[in-house]
């Protein structure tokens, strides 16, 4: 049993690409948690996508031993993501910690996610160690960044550490600060309680929950101690098959005591019984649960279809397996007349959706068609009812609608002040409502209320272009607000193609309708008959284009004779084309959907 006074639980949080994973690597190296022959960059980023993109997607806990002034301490580090779409992962790790290392880049300074994470940290009252990283860069100005930290967040000058995670400069100071400044875990009860902050699935051990033990002890070696355990919320009861810690691989220890971070193999086959934020207790004991946190709410919705309909069952199994390690996205079966059977999936943001799609492609070898992203609209009906829709297919008859509300996000944009003009112009195009503008040195902080539907298409890419890559964005849900929205429907040869329907703002509807019609005209192959492509809002056609038919030269076989012979053949052909146009079905190859939605 480890003395709680010698345990330090902490997380590293930072804006994306500020050196968080590199700092974690150096800490693992110095404490000897990883053998030098096994050491590689971004050791805690196990997913190949994390390595390629240089981002952390999933949190990864690791246990280390550090000796300071002759006393050995146990460090539990929980590596956390930096992107705003994965803020729920950060909130998970904070519940398992007593302190935070806040990393800020010495070249780019305070960014949007830095502020977002710190606001989250302040709600928990955790101890914060401010660290200025990348002091080895020629463009670094650490003293200016330190002034920003003091001015914006109220840190004391003497508490700010200056390091280079890449070069290993002053990493020892960070470890000493962890010992001295981060408090040891405090016991609050004699009964066993452990907070679940993540989970994964193992085919042999069932659901494996990552836990922080807040009270008591569990010991598999002591037969009198090990009893049935239970999840407080789901009421699921289980016998632990294995108990251990992270080094960073799972290592069976047989025991977890107050303050420790580790894992428990439950043997359960249904991950829904092990909710993140739930409390594990001994079955039958009367114990209050630990304060958990809300399940993340999906904000962006895409429908995934297999390019080959025979892969539907594979797609279903793959999504189920992926949800075992990432419970933050939802899926429900969905079908389309044009694309067949698929799944409507909800995500925390567009990057989250992109990562899941990429994982389905790489890890399960699936080829997927994804529809245009949409958001959740709230529709108030004339009869007093309220309907929530996630796809255009669910859009009710316009005559039944009283008004429509869309989700509005509170956005903070950080950028060098010379790019404020182009950013303001971009936000104006995106129907944003200006809230505030502050300057801190060369950095500007712009605050806006921005419709989520405007953010999910190309806002982030255009923001990066407008600021030459320097701007960063943080956003959170603010409220639902009334909007004048309409549903654009596409008719191919006068037949509705539901796969191309979209819900858009009325003022932009004609422009978007024309764009969609032109895209379809470009990509749909020609048929033996003319294909009219129409975009409609209600009964009104707002855009149209025609794909001309293949024309067979029926008069080629004629070698002379009267003109009426040629006219007769052309008239017969015209009748056939007319009949074909009225009966003919437009074939849409899968590639068209891929091209239209990319």
Automatic annotation (TrEMBL):
It is found in: Cell membrane. One of its GO terms (molecular function) is GTPase activity. InterPro entries: EF-4, EFG_III/V, EFG_V-like, G_TR_CS, LepA_C_sf, LepA_CTD, LepA_IV, P-loop_NTPase. Residues 5-186 form the Tr-type G domain. Its main location: membrane. Keywords: Cell membrane, Elongation factor, GTP-binding, Hydrolase, Membrane, Nucleotide-binding, Protein biosynthesis. This is Elongation factor 4. It comes from Candidatus Gottesmanbacteria bacterium RIFCSPLOWO2_01_FULL_42_22. The gene is lepA.
């Amino acid at each position: 049993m480890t003395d709680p006074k010698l345990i330090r639980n902490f997380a590293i949080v930072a804006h994306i690409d500020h050196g968080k994973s590199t700092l974690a690597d150096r800490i693992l190296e110095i404490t000897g948690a990883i053998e030098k022959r096994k050491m590689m960059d971004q050791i805690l980023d196990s997913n190949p996508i994390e390595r390629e993109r240089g981002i952390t997607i999933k949190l990864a806990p690791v246990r280390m031993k550090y000796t300071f002034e002759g006393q050995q301490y146990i460090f539990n580090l929980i590596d956390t993501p930096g992107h705003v779409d994965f803020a729920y992962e950060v909130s998970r790790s904070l519940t398992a910690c007593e302190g935070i290392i806040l990393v800020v880049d010495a070249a780019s300074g305070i960014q949007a996610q830095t502020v977002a994470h710190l606001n989250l940290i302040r709600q928990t009252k955790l101890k914060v160690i401010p660290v200025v990283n990348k002091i080895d860069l020629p463009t670094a100005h650490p003293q200016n960044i330190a002034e920003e930290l003091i001015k914006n967040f109220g840190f004391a000058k003497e508490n700010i550490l200056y390091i280079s995670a890449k070069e290993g400069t002053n990493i020892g100071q960070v470890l000493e600060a962890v010992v001295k400044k981060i408090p040891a875990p405090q016991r609050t009860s004699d009964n066993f309680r452990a907070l679940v902050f993540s989970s994964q699935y193992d085919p042999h051990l069932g659901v494996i929950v990552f836990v922080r033990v807040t009270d008591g002890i569990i010991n598999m070696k002591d037969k009198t101690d090990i009893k049935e355990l239970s999840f407080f919320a789901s009421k699921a009861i289980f016998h632990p098959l294995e108990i251990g810690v992270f080094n960073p691989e799972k290592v069976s220890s047989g025991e977890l005591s107050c303050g420790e971070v580790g894992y428990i193999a439950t043997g359960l086959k249904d991950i829904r019984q092990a909710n993140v934020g739930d409390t594990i207790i001994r079955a039958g004991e009367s114990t209050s649960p630990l304060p958990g946190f809300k399940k993340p709410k999906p904000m962006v919705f895409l429908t995934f279809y297999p390019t080959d309909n025979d892969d539907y069952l594979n797609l279903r199994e793959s999504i189920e397996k992926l949800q075992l390690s990432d419970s933050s996205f939802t899926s429900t079966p969905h079908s389309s007349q044009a694309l067949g059977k698929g799944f409507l999936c909800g995500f925390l943001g567009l990057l989250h959706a992109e990562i899941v799609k990429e994982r389905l492609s790489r890890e399960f070898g699936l080829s997927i068609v994804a529809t245009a992203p949409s958001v959740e609209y709230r529709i108030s009906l004339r009869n007093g009812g309220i309907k929530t829709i996630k796809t255009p297919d669910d859009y009710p008859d316009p005559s039944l609608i009283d008004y429509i509300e869309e989700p509005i996000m509170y956005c903070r944009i950080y950028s060098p002040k010379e790019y404020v003009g182009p950013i303001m112009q971009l936000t104006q195009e995106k129907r944003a409502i200006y809230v505030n503008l502050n300057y801190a040195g060369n950095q500007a902080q712009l605050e806006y209320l921005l419709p989520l539907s405007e953010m999910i298409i190309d806002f982030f890419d255009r923001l990066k272009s407008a600021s030459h890559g320097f701007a960063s964005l943080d956003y959170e849900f603010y409220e639902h607000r009334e909007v004048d929205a309409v549903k654009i429907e596409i008719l191919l040869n006068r037949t509705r193609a539901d796969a191309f329907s979209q819900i858009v703002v009325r003022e932009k509807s004609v422009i978007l309708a024309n764009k969609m019609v032109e895209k379809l005209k470009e990509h749909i192959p020609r048929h033996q008959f003319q294909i009219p492509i129409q975009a409609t809002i209600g009964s009104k056609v707002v855009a149209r284009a025609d794909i001309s038919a293949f024309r067979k030269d029926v008069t080629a076989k004629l070698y002379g004779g009267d003109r009426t012979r040629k006219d007769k053949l052309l008239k017969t052909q015209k009748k056939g084309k007319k009949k074909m146009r009225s009966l003919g079905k437009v074939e849409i190859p899968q590639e068209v959907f891929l091209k239209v939605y990319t």
